[in-house]
Amino acid sequence: MQITHVEVVPVxxxxxxxxxxxxxxxxxxxxxxxxxxxxTREGQVAWGCAAFDxxxxxxxxxxxxxxxxxxxDRALDLNPLNTEFALAELAPLTExxxxxxCAFDMAFYDLLGLAAGLPLHRxxxxxxxxxxxxITLSLAPVKETVEMAQExxxxxxxxxxxxxxxxxxxxxxRVQAVHDALxxxxxxxxxxxxxTVRQALDVARALAGRLEMLEQPTPAADLKALREVAEHSPVxxxxxxxxxxxxxxxxxxxxxxAHGLSVKLTTCGGLHCARQVxxxxxxxxxxxxxxxxxxxxxxxxxxxxxxxxxxxxxxxDLDGHxxxxxxxxxxxxxxxxxxxxxxxxxGLGCTVDx
Length: 354
Known about the structure:
Blueprint: E1 3-19, E2 28-40, E3 45-51, H1 54-57, H2 61-75, H3 83-90, H4 98-116, H5 120-123, E4 130-132, E5 135-137, H6 142-154, E6 159-163, H7 168-181, E7 186-190, H8 197-206, E8 211-215, H9 223-232, E9 237-239, H10 246-254, E10 260-264, H11 265-268, H12 271-283, E11 287-291, H13 297-309, E12 313-316, E13 329-330, E14 334-336, E15 339-341, E16 351-352
Parallel strand pairs: 5-6, 6-7, 7-8, 8-9, 9-10, 10-11, 11-12
Antiparallel strand pairs: 1-2, 2-3, 4-15, 13-16, 14-15
Helix pairs in contact: 2-4, 3-4, 6-7, 7-8, 8-9, 10-12
């Protein structure tokens, strides 16, 4: 298979609702991303996407665009079906820009699925065809949080992830209030590195029986603190920002610093790296969560393919596309009563109108 043309397209997408977190106190209203289109001599068209959060990886649109264009030139000389070799060739070009590496990684896997005539989740293992996803609730006062939770429940979501990390006591109040209002829903709390060890354990103990998990309660670089929380918490602890690549996953696993790993394709560099993270988690008997940032449905389709392919993926947090107003992606998967459900469409199963 030969790639004959690569197009790199920057796109700015708006959010239906501003998104506020401890890391984004001013709120996020727009998302910048870069779509990558690959055309082959055989007539296939594949897509990838680079979405990024500067607060997580420090990437900028200018940097990502520059790297994607450099990779586009190199990709013309690569056979994308030799995925390991192709990605190894792009690795030095994408150093420091995991979202750019992710864009080409998923485009190569899209082509692989098209060539094989298999949807991504079957190509990677075919363990299941659907998974429940949480929907994230923006950081807000108690009353507003309950109102947002009730609206999401009306939309069909059965798992809610609350953002927190600024005020542990208020986080407890918010979770308790949502639980009282919607006792049949599953709740998660993402503290976004905002707690001390003592605060994290106080929150976990106060919410035992109400929380499915507590995500990244302590600073990302302090694995000692994360391990201390995990050792004593009655609620499962997941590492998120502490996880950046397979090497960091191995360190977290070897130190037993968490009960699970949350992997995002766009921050770790794509499916190739994310599958390594999941393999490490599985070997260490840690749960995997496949997560996301605010990102187009094309990226969600790639994350969904990974989540459906592995029996070790216990949690889905693939909601980054729901509030995007002008997403050019037409996904092949669909949402039904809290579940993301895949169709048997080859590759990523999406079309992109650009």
